[in-house]
What does this fold into?
Amino acid sequence: MANRNTVGFGLIPSGALGATPSTGGQNKYKIDSGYGSSIYLGQPVQFDTAGGANDNPGYVINGQDAITRPTIGVFNGCFYTDATTNKPTFSSYFPRTTAPANSEDIDAFIIDNPFQQYNVQLDTRLAATAILAQAEMGSTFGLTVSANGAGSAGSGSTISGQSNSQLTVGTGATGIQNQWRLLRSAEDPENEDLITAPQTNPALAAFSGLATVVVVANLSQWFGTGSVSA
It folds into this structure.
């Protein structure tokens, strides 16, 4: 059975471990004025502990520059005063190097429950057979890498603000080294085929989609796992 969805969408909240209520609750953190990397809706972030130009310690930064980064949660939009219009601005993504009026900090809204589950799209089929696909459950994976730095535009849409990241199957490991742990298929009837390879032939476009799965954070700054970037 083929999948319909062909475009990555980052991480979308979907339930919580233990079947506890999942409110998609978020808290407010700070992005340093002029920070040099875009951050998109559905992209993991982390606390900066090393510092650098426009990303001082204590601010949140891109947490997707390596598949082994710990995270405090997933970006869900931001607020700042636009330097050109002087108007309060809500944005679904943070455009890199944004410097608000008076060089104020940017408010970032982060879904920060470490037990939050997320739906995410695979970047290829999970395995060639159902038995091999099941064997991948519980393994850890990374997302599409989005580099840090002033030259990085991130990975997402500047129109919708949505991340286009996918779970990269090739990074799968049975150890604890990667950022996200695979739990199960998302059971989306139109995107639950884990074993059909996507087709590139235009005549087979109906078979070019990729499955949606459920993950939870494996490396978390709340629990002191993983190494932090600058």
Notes: The chain has two domains: 24-111, 114-217. The chain is about 5% helix and 30% strand. Confidence is low (pLDDT under 50) at residues 149-153.
